[in-house]
């Protein structure tokens, strides 16, 4: 059976970032049938991704930010095999969405690991949200949108709500939670090293779309405070010098030990 075709969809207004992330995917997918679709005039991420879905010819669709770097050469093999079981994959997420922020439920409901690096900084961080299952955690309700992978059928069936989320926030929670509510299977990949150059923006624009998200899903959420953006002890951060140290640290034993310690500390500091 031929390898599935992979369509990577990137919304970007930065030519340098788009070139860099495209080079990353070209390297990863060199031996696979693939295409990279750049959307450079999106009015929102939801609108841009919907346009990308309409143009995509792949069996697998990757919705990617333009500021990530994937360090695992087995990325295409892993996502292809896992999408035989799951409908949507991410790299960080929760099995209990309580609010318009995926990590708001705190421990032990968050999963995944992500490295963050910012321009001008001389170090990387490895943020461990939870690695109790390896290599993939199932039973997920919502995922972070810096990189999302879906089967073509799921992407077309669920789509992005460009009317409600007509900006650049909450499109990811809406897509993934909507997929979950529709009975699709979501998973978080814990074993694929990935660097993201942004740690999120929770300013007024996020709150605006958080209110829209809560209005849409009010019946399914426990916490309807749109200003709530973080859970207690939601993750543990390890500071690293470079990507070599990052790859040495991205091991199941280390990540599981960090998860156990984090969740123990979370229980000990939880209110009576």
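Q: What amino acid sequence fits the structure above?
A:
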């Amino acid at each position: 059976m031929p390898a599935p075709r992979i369509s990577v969809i990137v919304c970007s207004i930065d030519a340098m970032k788009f070139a860099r992330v495209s080079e990353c995917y070209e390297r990863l997918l060199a031996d696979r049938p693939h295409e990279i679709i750049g959307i450079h005039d999106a009015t929102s991420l939801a609108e841009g991704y919907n346009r990308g879905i309409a143009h995509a010819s792949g069996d697998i669709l990757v919705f990617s930010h333009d500021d990530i770097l994937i360090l695992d050469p087995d990325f295409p093999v892993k996502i292809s095999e896992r999408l035989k079981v799951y409908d949507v994959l991410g790299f960080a997420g929760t099995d209990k969405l309580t609010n318009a922020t995926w990590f708001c439920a705190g421990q032990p409901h968050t999963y995944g690991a992500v490295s963050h690096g910012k321009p001008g900084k001389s170090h990387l961080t490895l943020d461990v949200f939870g690695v109790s299952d390896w290599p993939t955690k199932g039973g997920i309700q919502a995922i972070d949108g810096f990189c999302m992978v879906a089967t073509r059928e799921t992407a077309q069936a669920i789509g992005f709500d460009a009317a409600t989320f007509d900006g650049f926030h909450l499109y990811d929670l809406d897509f993934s939670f909507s997929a979950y509510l529709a009975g699709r299977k979501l998973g978080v990949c814990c074993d694929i090293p990935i660097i993201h150059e942004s740690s999120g923006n929770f300013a007024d624009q996020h709150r605006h779309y958080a209110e829209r998200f809560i209005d849409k899903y009010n019946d399914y959420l426990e916490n309807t405070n749109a200003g709530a953006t973080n859970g207690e002890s939601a993750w543990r951060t390890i500071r690293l010098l470079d990507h070599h140290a990052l790859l040495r640290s991205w091991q199941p034993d280390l990540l599981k030990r960090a998860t156990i310690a984090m969740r123990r500390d979370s229980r000990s500091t939880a209110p009576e």
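Q: And what stands out in the fold?
A: The chain has a mean pLDDT of 93.
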